[in-house]
Amino acid sequence: MSHRPENIHLDNWRESPYNHWALHHVRELIPTANIRSNSSNISALSRTGSPLSDMTFEGVAGQPQPLEAVLSETWTDALCVMQGDSIVHEWYAPHYDGVEPHILFSVSKSVTGALAGVLVEGGRLAVDEAVTTYIPEAAGSGFGDCSVQQVLDMQAGLDFTEIYTGGNAQFHRYRAATGWNYPAPGELPGDLRSFLVSIGHSGTPHGHTHLYMSPNSDMLGLILESASGERFSDLVSRHFWQPMGAEADAYVTVDPKGAPRAAGGICVRPRDLARFGRTMCNGGRFNGKQIVPERWVEDCLTAGSREAWQRGDMIELVPHGKYRNQWYQTGNASGTFFALGIHGQWIYGDPAAEVVIIKFSSQPDPFNDALNVLNLRLFSSITQALM
């Protein structure tokens, strides 16, 4: 689908069939801020062959299927597999050529979490400080007595429900405040910062339970801007995209006042996300540089509270996992980790096998538990095939 669909608008752009076009044309629908690359420092990616095209993998119906068939039936837009510093397999859907930046949705959270580590290493951010140290107007809100680390780990006790479909008025106000939806009739669009500091406390103690709530990550984006004195888009450009040698500019959606959608609005090319995934899988190093501090990468991939995860709302996805600094850990022997976004966006990394898998999708449903589990099995099978 190369042309803009008729009748596409802010209240349907994430729905099928519109999302086949919209997820890689986001800047034509929503205001954005550019994440600049450096055309004089593009890191070359070598290419080697793999047996994946000739192999079969579990499909949606549970039967063995060629890889391309599995990708098609799981609404895949792009698949990029790296082993070491080489691309070993790429696949693109007929409607997406990998050139236009594709939205990451909540994989953006993991980029934001890695960026926090850069500021911590530079002494500009302290994770044991209160949110109000950086966002004073959060006093009296659900974030008021919460630490930055609890925000990073999604252990803030917020009076908020993450629900993507249906008529949840609070979630609709949230989306409208980010510029992603039209406001409800009779309501003003608002802005992200004002919405975040309006969220109350749920009564659950901070630090007790992992509860998936995107406002944590959007608050984190504001904290990073406050701690650094720089725009979020410029931070990602200076610390990640340019030193990493990204091949193209990325961008992030912004609200009516320019606040970044750090929880879900980053849009990038598949190969550049593969570069970033390889960075996390390689102790924070890529393109001959330490991009993400090694200590922070280790913390993201090994630390965190298993008890908070066990008490949380996503235990069925990864029963033995943990969540740390906006990254998921599977808890398996290989130290496998991942980042996950609605409609089927993924970074999957296996440090032991040095395999990184990027998957962009345009699934009709925002969140599909069965597909998430199937994708994790697919990624594990791909990794095993390359070992």
Describe this entry's structure for a reader:
This protein has twelve helices and 16 strands. The protein is an alpha+beta fold and 387 residues long. The chain has a single domain, classed as DD-peptidase/beta-lactamase superfamily (Beta-lactamase, 3-Layer(aba) Sandwich), CATH 3.40.710.10. The strands form four sheets. It has an eight-stranded mixed sheet with strand order 2-6-5-16-15-14-13-12, sandwiched between helices. A four-stranded antiparallel sheet has the order 1-8-9-7. Strands 3-4 form a two-stranded antiparallel ribbon. Strand 13 and strand 14 form a beta hairpin. The two termini are 36 Å apart.
